[in-house]
Amino acid sequence: MEKESLIKITHGGLGSLLNSIQTLFVGMLRIWSIPIVLMLSVASGFTTYYGMSHFIVPWIALIITIAIQSIIVICSLEIAGIHWKANRMRYLSVLVSLLVAIAASITFSYFKFYEISQTETIHINRINEIRKDVNDYLTAIQITKSDILKQQNSELDKATKDVTQAYFGTHELIPPANKNIVGEGPFWRHYNQRYQAKKAQFDQLEKEFQQLDEHIRTLQTSLNHLSADTENNYQKAVAGLQEVQLKFNQLATNVGHTVPQAPILMTYAQFVQGVTPSFSMWEDFSLFAFACAAIVDFFTFLLSYRLESTAPGPLSEQEQELVFECLRQFSEFRINDNDELEMVIEKSDIERARRYSDWSRMFAVGFLLSRGFLRKIDERSVEFAPNLYPLIAERMGAQLRAIKAKSLASAQSGKNQVSHEQ
How many CB atoms lie within 10 A of CB 286? Predict the structure, then answer.
């Protein structure tokens, strides 16, 4: 018998301990939710302000940002305690306000997350764009160079043919008296001089094109290493492009060829410039940036919504006693679809027939609605908020203990009376 009592006490103590730990843990989570909501709101506010400050005056952007984040938290708390059937206009107004605030927050926060997520991509795109422009220009140079060499080679071949024909006396411009006379005469010397000049010009052109190829290789090396040491290689690339352009323009102009249009590179400051928020970012939509902007506001809404289950403040002993006694006067209760205890606050037909005054219990309902312990479902019913159950359970437990103590006292009194009679 003593062993059974010991086991019962031990089990009761363990259950009470586990219940206390669970209650403490849940309470700590609810308390911890408040700073988390504030931190999320500050984080979302920073990104919202950053994006908005690029479009309007900063101090106005700051005020609007504070208003947006306040509306998100307040409407999230408020919409958690409103039922659609209770007040449709109020529900819609709060919901629209919440959606507008979240949309504004996400829209301007998107710019900051876009900048963070796309900075590296934009930098790589700039490098690739510069490489493409320069490579297109170098390709045009190679095509023009090939045309120049082809033209010069054709002129050299013609000069070679002319000097050969002049040597054998078969040139079409040789006077008839000198036709078919082989030798190095005055006519041959004239064409030989032209041939030697053309050959020297061709050799010099090839040498200068070889030097140009060296400049092109240096330029391409700078472009290939542009992502490694950006500042130095960018300056080398700009200088190399200018050197190639100047050298090639001189060569092409000397032989009477048109030159291709060289690309105009951005300055180094423009090349390393960060992303400036603009609505063009929505054209190049980034799903990752949008998801980051949306998830911060979603968590802010979710935690704020969950905070509504905690009342703004505790009830005093007198208030608890008043509420408990007044709620006991209601008679229609049920468990609704939200798994909450729902009660009808309208008068019953019998109460209307008796002209029952329900002022006290309706006062209790209004008091608990304003304090967040009740939630209005529709015009005739309300449901218990989760934080009301412990208060009612405590009062019911105290009442049961009082009844039990009274029963024990009555039983003891009866025993004493019987003993006295004996």
Answer: 17
The pLDDT mean for the chain works out to 78
Task: Name the more confident of 261 and 276.
Answer: 261
Average the pLDDT over each of 1-5, 151-155, 214-218, 392-396 and give the range with the smallest value: 1-5
Residues in the chain: 422
Rg of the chain taking only CA atoms, in angstroms: 46
Question: pLDDT by residue (tens digit) across 51-89?
Answer: 888 888 889 989 999 999 999 988 888 887 776 766 778
Contacts 24+ apart (CB under 8 A), 376-380: 376/81, 376/82, 376/83, 376/86, 376/87, 377/83, 377/85, 377/86, 377/336, 377/342, 378/83, 378/85, 378/86, 379/86, 380/344, 380/345, 380/346
- Please report the DSSP string for 12-75 in residue order: HHHHHHHHHHHHHHHHHHHHHHHHHHHHHHHHHHHHHHHHHTTTS-HHHHHHHHHHHHHHHHHH
What single-letter amino acid sits at 212? L
> Using one digit for the tens of pLDDT, what is the confidence trace for 127-148?
888 888 888 888 888 888 888 8
The angle subtended at Cα 194 by Cα 192 and Cα 196, nearest 5°, is 70
Q: What is the mean pLDDT of residues 258-279?
A: 75
Query: Domain segments of the chain: what residues?
Result: 2-117+278-307, 126-271, 317-408
Cα–Cα distance measured from residue 326 to residue 358, given in angstroms and rounded to the nearest whole number: 9
Q: Give the architecture (CATH level 2) of 317-408.
A: Orthogonal Bundle (1.10)
- The answer to whether 358 and 329 are in contact (CB under 8 A) is yes
Placement of tokens 């009808």 in the chain: 344
- Whether the CB-CB separation of 371 and 312 falls below 8 Å is answered with yes
